[in-house]
Amino acid sequence: MPTDPRAVLTRPAPDPDVTVAYGEHPDQIADLRRPASAGPPRPLVVVVHGGFWRAEYDRRHTGPLAAALAALGHPVAQLEYRRTGQPGGGWPGTPTDVLAGVSALPRLAAAALPGQVAPGPPLLVGHSAGGHLALYTAAHAPDAVGGVLALAPVTDLAEAYRLDLDSGAVAALLGGGPADVPERYAAADPRSLTPLRPRTVVMHGTLDQQVPVGMSRAYVAAGQAAGADIRLVELPECEHFGLIDPESAAWPQITTALRSLHEDQ
């Protein structure tokens, strides 16, 4: 029987080494993992989880991904943030939390993991809605981001609203549709925020049923036309969750893309 691709969402992972807070709310925190191997300090990798910005999905489902990245020698932070369905979640709390967390985590991680975090801005790995939040952060605070690996990101909020992805997820995040709150879409929609300054790799499975691959194709084409350093890697036979599963066939390409961002810093 084929393995359920969603199994990664509940797969056990080793506990993080330490948890740090970047704000006062209980969800303004991040779990840190030390690199498993000794070596020179590397840039922090900040994992921004998905789940269509909803409260029922938290950072814990990225445990296998984060543990695998730490095993490859990266210092890793699993960023948490307020989500829709929680006090302070939605607009503007959700994207503001991620922006604040990404800005604070290099300092917090360097203090908690001495000698293991290289100076400079972190690399962001964002999946699905977390991909949107990583791109949002790179657009609004480019100097705070060393590069972005966006995995099946939601790159067009207006189109996601039109398609009613995850039964109203975008409306829940922004408080309505593009006609209701156009200024929020202008500020939050990656399609309105090109070109990005940080180097960006977008990866998307062609079998994705949660976020259409055409969204990434259009976004990357627009970014390239505007002069951004951005490329798309399409993964045949890969669906939405294989991108965060270290046991999937896609995993070697994920690590290769992250390595390319690290080497170019």
Write up what this structure looks like:
This protein is globular. With 265 residues, it is an alpha/beta fold. The chain has helices at 63-71, 93-112, 129-140, 157-163, 169-174, 182-188, 213-225, 251-263, and strands at 18-21, 29-33, 45-48, 76-79, 123-127, 147-151, 200-205, 230-235. Helix 3 (129-140) links the parallel strand 5 (123-127) and strand 6. It has a single domain (5-263), classed as Rossmann fold (3-Layer(aba) Sandwich). Strands 1-2-4-3-5-6-7-8 form an 8-stranded mixed β-sheet, sandwiched between helices. It is 33% helix and 15% strand.
Instruction: Note the beta-strand portion.
Output: 5-15%
Largest sheet: 8 strands, mixed
Compute the number of strand runs.
Answer: 8
CATH class term: Alpha Beta
Q: Can you tell me the overall shape?
A: globular
**Separate helix tally:** 8
| Radius of gyration from CA coordinates | 17 Å
Q: How are helices and strands ordered from N to C?
A: EEEHEHEHEHHHEHEH
Mean pLDDT: 96
- The largest sheet has its strands arranged as 1-2-4-3-5-6-7-8
What is the third-level CATH name, the topology?
Rossmann fold
Structural class: alpha/beta
- Could you state the CATH homologous superfamily? Alpha/Beta hydrolase fold, catalytic domain
Number of domains: 1
What low-confidence regions span 5 or more consecutive residues with pLDDT below 50? none
Helix content: 25-40%
CATH level-two architecture: 3-Layer(aba) Sandwich
